[in-house]
Amino acid sequence: MKLTIERATFLKALAHVQSVVERRNTIPILANVLLDGKNGSLTLSATDMDLAINETVPAETDQEGSTTAPAHTLYDIVRKLPDGAQVEIETDAAAGQLLIRAGRSKFNLATLPVEDFPTMSGGDMPHTFTLEAEELRTLVDRTRFAVSTEETRYYLNGIFLHAADQDGTNVLRAVATDGHRLARVQLPMPDGGDGIPGVIVPRKAIGELRKLIEETTDPIEIALSDTRIRMTFDDAVLTSKLIDGTFPDYERVIPKDNDKILSVDRGAFAQAVDRVSTISSEKSRAIKLAVGPGQLTLSATSAENGSASEELEVSYDETEIEIGFNSRYLLDITAQIENDNAEFVLADASSPTIVRDSGDESALYVLMPMRV
Amino acid sequence: MAVAGSWHPVVTEKPQGAHTGLCRDCAASVPAGARRCPACGAPRILSHRELDTLSIAHIDCDAFYASVEKRDDPSLRDKPVIVGGRQRGVVSAACYIARIKGVHSAMPMFQALKLCPDATVIQPNMEKYSAVGRHIRDLMREITPLVEPLSIDEAFLDLTGTQRLHQASPAKSLIRLVNQIEREIGVTASVGLSYNKFLAKLASDIDKPRGFAVIGRGEALTFLDTLPVSRIWGVGKSLHRKLTADGLHTIGQIRAHDEARLMKRYGAIGQRLARFSHGEDSRVVKPHSVPKNLSSETTFSEDIADPDALAKRLWPLCEKVTDRMKMRDLAGRTVTLKLKSSQFKTLTRSHALPAPTRLAETLYQAAVPLLERAIAAAPSGSKFRLIGVGLSNFADPLEADPPDLADPDADHRKRVEAVIDQVRGKLGHDAIGKGRSIRGGKRKKTPERP
């Protein structure tokens, strides 16, 4: 293989690829990126055996061929090359090395045989649908903050994507929860999405997906089977195993009978929560909301720090209620609300509370209160 | 050594009898220069210039578990007694007769029995010991409310300001207290009296058993000069190694370095080292010290390799730990599992729960994966002799076991456990239990109805 590629193009592709590759690998080949040059393009592939990425970028191919080289090292080299540089890469089969040249810099990297590189078979993907980049971004952003990192409940370590029925219409739903908060976001079901299985997309795949969405405006094709998801972007294909587990029956925990509506100015509320929570104890981050007609008092006390309170004008005309929340969770949720107003639908101090965007029915958040 | 208090010989910084003293046996005041107590004739006279002004004490029962067993079986009085697991396990306590042969606590039992083959080995009965320990603490609290228990059989007492109440100096009140413990409970205790906790604890060890030792301001530094650094509370194995490597063997050598330097080198403990080396300790006697962790463990009669069998042994331990958590109104966030292999290698695995708990079920559910991980970390085919489980990182019980959005049945399980606890409160522990507590038919059958 011998080819020349523009540094910026190469770097962007390597950035995607190297973040799939784990920093510590017990299997040497998994530390490598597969480079395959042919027909005026270079395809880069990397995998951690759960998640695989393939990205194809334009290159001047003088000689077709392929090899594998350490992904992080290659990324670091290309990152440090000057902007605008033309990078020349060439395999030296006899020495088992990859030569990299740019300007006066020259690198020789050890390679491993292409045959050793594991292929993650996509298998048959019976369901295919397409989402706009913006739609997928919304699904991901509004739910991923609630994804759990708790290893023992591995089935919560991802976003649950499934078809659901919302008042007679079919919707594509994304749900995530860590037990303390739950996020549920939905879109009208795209063509081809009817009948998809409920799948849990793991956190790492979500992270990579999110980076790729950032760099595209084109629609994204999503293909699904019971065990895999494949997302096709203009240049890149991301394939991930799905979490093999059962997502909890979340509908049971979404309250149906909450009736006290508190409407707050989202920005003013978030700022006040942020200020008052400075005092909250590091461990619990608890903050108290005392709601009365037209007024909300936020307060926090901690044995170590002292106390704080702040008053806000709000729209509320139900009986008074005092309820505690984790301030960080409140901020995570308000950050996802795009409208100027956020609505809290309360029942009592010990029941889950619904938070929603007053102008947007598609997203719903449930927050567990804390005893304060 | 300039330490006062041993009755034989009585060592003080001045010739014996220069100050009025107290009789260690009957607490009577003794005029200066007397060799025997005028009231009871005993030769144990405490005499120290600062005796009337010192008020921080450390009381430590002598060979506590063994003493309790001897009390309950007078035929053992003159025989060596070791409390601990029989052939297996370690020595929990050894009486003074067994100690003469070199037996000490934490020694493996087989080794202890080699040193002292004629010893009577008694299985520990922790319930009995804690009952006796509670009784002793109650007596302590009668002379001062400031009692800080360190374990089942030792405590710090602050007797500052009790002189007028008791019409007696702290030293006199303490003699009366240990005499009362001896009389009413039947075990002996040793007293260390000084002006802070650090020195009081060192003092109680000087004159054991049935001791009473005093370290006053006058001789504290001389006493500390030659004392090994390992005697400082908080100096464990690794810090001891570090200090030794730095050429600091005695507390006197530490005193040669200033506080800032010690803190820079050893961290927060450096400050404590510096203060202690000057005989200073500002920690107050805190009556409500809360434990930092609660755990329970068991040694098997035969080593176990089967993971399921190990998990079965785990469940009652989880119940024990959470029963104590509930009793003390605590909740813990970190679960720790401990396994000891037949080669005496200890494996521990910890996990932080998303929310603090005091439920046996939650503890068990978190401990089982830790057990699997610990077994996986051991060489394959390993057998284990001990399993333990504990909770630490205590949190406000208000935050314990919150309802869980990802687990709609959590609330149900919490209620089930509350019901089990209620039934047990009325009818006893064996009245009700979860299915997994049934172990190979060992569970007592409920009597059949006629």
**Biggest sheet of chain B, open or closed, and with what strands and sense?**
5 strands, mixed
Class of secondary structure makeup of chain A = alpha+beta
The order of strands across the largest sheet of chain B is 8-9-4-10-11
Rg for CA atoms of chain A? 25 Å
Alpha plus pi helix count of chain A = 6
Q: Which strand-content bin applies to the residues of chain B?
A: 15-25%
Secondary-structure-based class of chain B equals alpha+beta
* Most residues in contact: chain pair: A-B, 24 and 17 residues
Number of strands of chain B: 15
Approximately how much helix is present in the residues of chain A?
10-25%
Name the overall outline of chain A.
elongated
Mean pLDDT of chain A: 94
End-to-end C-alpha gap of chain A = 66 Å
SSE inventory with pairings:
The complex is a heterodimer of chains A (372) and B (450).
Chain A: E1 2-6, H1 7-20, E2 32-38, E3 41-47, E4 51-58, E5 60-63, E6 65-70, H2 71-80, E7 86-92, E8 97-102, E9 105-110, E10 127-131, H3 133-144, E11 158-166, E12 169-177, E13 181-188, E14 199-202, H4 203-214, E15 220-224, E16 228-232, E17 236-241, E18 260-265, H5 266-276, E19 286-292, E20 295-302, E21 306-313, E22 321-326, H6 327-336, E23 341-346, E24 353-357, E25 360-367
Antiparallel strand pairs in A: 1-5, 1-7, 2-3, 2-6, 3-4, 4-17, 7-8, 8-9, 10-15, 11-12, 11-14, 12-13, 13-25, 15-16, 16-17, 18-23, 19-20, 19-22, 20-21, 23-24, 24-25
Chain B: E1 21-23, E2 29-30, E3 45-47, E4 56-61, H1 64-72, E5 81-84, E6 91-94, H2 96-100, H3 109-115, E7 120-122, H4 126-143, E8 147-151, E9 154-158, H5 163-166, H6 170-185, E10 189-194, H7 197-204, E11 212-214, H8 220-225, H9 237-245, H10 251-255, H11 259-266, H12 268-277, E12 293-304, H13 307-327, E13 331-341, E14 346-357, H14 360-377, E15 384-395, H15 410-427
Helix pairs in contact in B: 4-6, 11-12, 13-14
